[in-house]
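Example (one chain per record):
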Amino acid sequence: MEGEETGESGARGRSGARHPRFGMAVVRGDSMRPTLAPGDRLLVRYDARPAPGDVVVARFVDGTVVVKRAVERRDAGWWLLGDAAPVGVDSRHRGPVPDAAVLGVVRARLWPRPGRVPAPCRPGT
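Predicted structure:
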């Protein structure tokens, strides 16, 4: 997954510099199938607090930026998982992601099928 920021709709941080509130991320890889597919463009809210079940953009300690689902908040941070469990790398491999490393919450898919990001597909439901 890679992301790119938008420009104008920013808020001022502690340093007084403008930080974007919204940005766009592009899905790479299959770890979020069937919810998200490679190439999907996502609207990301950077100053939003995640809740369990939200799809988030986060940075692993090695610098890799990922799109994953926030499953639960633990003492050490967020437990993040892909919707396609056997595919990709997530908190099962890297552990909890600190709050500061959760960069934003995905608010919508912009392209190719615009709309809200659905809850994970569960077999038998």
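Caption: Helices lie at 91-94.
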